Every structure is written in structure tokens, then in C-alpha cells.
Amino acid sequence: MANDIGYFAVKSIGLSEINGRKTCSLKDAARHNLREIQAETGAITRINPLKTINNWVMTGPNDADSVVSLAKKTCAIAGVDLSKKRRDYCQAIEIVFSLPPGSKIEPAKYFENCLDWVKQAYELPLLSSVVHMDEEAPHCHTLLLPLNREGRYVGSAPCERPETKKKTESFFISVAGPAGLIRQGAKLRGVIKKVAISLTLQKCTDMGLPAANGHLWPFFKSSIYRDPVPALEALGIDRQAIEAAHKLHINEQANPKGIEITVPKTQTLSCVGIGKLSSAAEAQNACKPPSISRLEVAREAQQTAEVKHLHKVRQPQQVIAARHNHDDGLTRVKDEYAHDLSAWDD
Q: Sheet harboring 139-144: ordered strands across?
């Protein structure tokens, strides 16, 4: 159960074709969720019509037309005129929750918790929420109207990547995680990933997989190094074992009490030799570059600039002419390259 993968997805419902996406109206989405599209219940689809009777509506109307009417009525009350929207405007936000096939988790309770989380996390009007039990994996479709509490139509903003990332983290912390589910495609990183790779390779060695796969083993091994998650799931390695191994790794790396960490008496001072040092402090000081005043650096930079651009300095006749033309009489050197050096004073 600890390795069961939970599913959570958010998408916008509308007629936009950006990036080749398939168009879908609110009515089409509602018809699918409420099983009003007869073609979907045929023998070639994933839907088992004999099990459709087990589906149920958690909230919202029982037909697609009423779902659309509810959306229009809610917008009208908020003063939003949908007729003035672009043709491809976002008509709704759809969230899908799914349990893995054969899961021992009670669907009714789980999807009820999902719906409670949606109400708090999104704070958008609920149009419809339907649970499907007529496919391999029990899942729930929830349609939200993208209208915030201030009565502003927010469109597809709730589906943007940064917002969805936050919501995904929140969902798995609040609902899916406590139910015993892990994220689909969640990758391991850092030390946790290294521990997972070590456990996976050890398990493969114990099972004799390197020898059994012969020349193919290097390819399998490189795949494990890229992402050990699929191998973990295939070998039945619980992530709790990874966490336990990680904690053990941290404890082993910690500095035991009573052991003093000292700096060596010798330390490389340059690329050509090693000099003896009387203390660690001297070693650190020897590696530091000589201290240079920031004021000296600034003045040197200014002098370099002045010499480089000396040819731009106006001649006295040009300066006098400029003064008659209400110029401030300063040379180009001071105009472009002089700076206040008081800020550099220590």
C-alpha cells in the first residue's frame, strides 16, 4: 500500500487550441462526467457500461445542461457577462483525483476528503463532482467555475505551473499522503536518491540480476542511476526503507563526540611547494590575497580611464566656446569618467 501511486491533475476547460490541445467545452466535459455521451459506453472504450450504475454524483446537477446553466447563473449574479469573453476563454477548471487499480482505500471516504480539500484550496464555485467506478481505476472529476470570491473571472490562472505545483504539494501532504499514496512520477534527488540507488543495486545483486542479464545489465544499471523510482516499485522496495537508510547514513556521517578536528600543520601555499605553518590561523591567513584598499582600486581605475580617453578632452578654446553656449565648462573626462569616491572610504 505504501507504494500505491495517487493521481492528481488540473486542467482548463475551453476551446483554446494553443500548443495543439484538444478543445473541450464545459458542456462536453459535463456530458462525459455524467455519462451522457452514448458513444463512450461502447465495447471499444475503457468504460464498462455494466458498472456505470456504480457511479455517483457527489455535488452538482445530474445533467450537463444544468451544469452549464449553473455556471451562467453564478456569473450573472457576480456581474460577469460571458458573452463578452473571447471564443477560447477558459470555461471551467477540472481537477481529477484517482486511486490505483485494486486499491484497498475506500473510494467514498477518499474522494470526500479530496472534495473537502478542493473547497479550501481553490475557493472557487463548485459546479459538479462525479465519481467514476466503471473504469479500471476509481476516479473523481470535479469542475470549478474560475470566479474568485471578489467576483472576478480569473480564467486559467489556477492552472498555471507555479500555482499547480503548490496545490500538488498541498494535496499530497493533506490528503493522498495520509491515505498511504505517493506522487506519480515523483523523482528522488540528492542524498535520498543516492541511498535509493544503493538499495536498488544491492537488491539486484542479491537476486542475481547482474549475472542473469549479462550484457544488458549495464543498460539497466544506467537507467537505475538516472531514476531509481521505477526499479524501486518493480522490486517492491518501500520508500520508508529509504528514509530509514537515509537517517542511518546521516548518523554515520555525523562527527562523534570527543573527536577533535584539527588543521594539518602543513598546507600548500602555492603550486610549487609546501610551507610549514605554526597554526591553523596562519594557514588561513597565508591563503588570503593581500588586502587592497577599495579606494585605491577605484582611483587606479579612474586614472586608467582618463589616460585611455585623454584624446576626448576638450581643448581650452572648445571649453571657452562651450561656456558661451551655457555649457558647464567641464571636460568630457570629468563628465563621463569621474565618480564620487567618498563611498569607497573605509
A: 56-59, 126-132, 139-144, 90-98, 5-14, 182-183
Q: Which residue ranges make up each domain of the chain?
A: 5-183, 190-253, 263-291, 294-344
Most trustworthy range by pLDDT among 123-132, 264-273, 302-311: 123-132
3-state helix, strand, coil in the chain (%, to 5): 50, 15, 35
Determine the Cα–Cα distance for residues 33 and 40; give it in Å rounded to an integer. Answer: 11
Stronger pLDDT, 99 or 315, i.e. the higher one: 99
CA 160 to CA 11: how far, in whole Å? 9
Query: Which residues are paired to 9 by β-bridges?
Result: 96
Torsion of CA 20, 25, 30, 36, to 10 degrees: -90
Report the 10 Å Cβ neighbour count for 214.
8
Q: How confident is the model at residue 310, as a pLDDT?
A: 55
- For range 61-74, the mean pLDDT: 96
Radius of gyration of the chain (CA): 34
Class of domain 5-183: alpha beta
The length of the chain is: 346
How many helices (DSSP H) and strands (DSSP E) are in the chain? 13, 8
User: φ, ψ for residue 134 (rounded to 5)?
Assistant: -100, 15
Measured over the CA atoms of residue 107, residue 113, residue 115 and residue 118, the dihedral's sign is: negative
Spatial separation of the C-alpha atoms in residues 160 and 156, rounded to whole Å: 7
Q: Write down the pLDDT at residue 43.
A: 53
What's 161's DSSP letter?
H
- Summarize the confidence of residues 195-203 as an average pLDDT: 89
Query: DSSP H helical segments within the chain, as ranges?
Result: 26-33, 64-77, 107-122, 161-171, 190-206, 209-213, 217-226, 229-235, 239-253, 280-287, 294-308, 316-324, 332-337
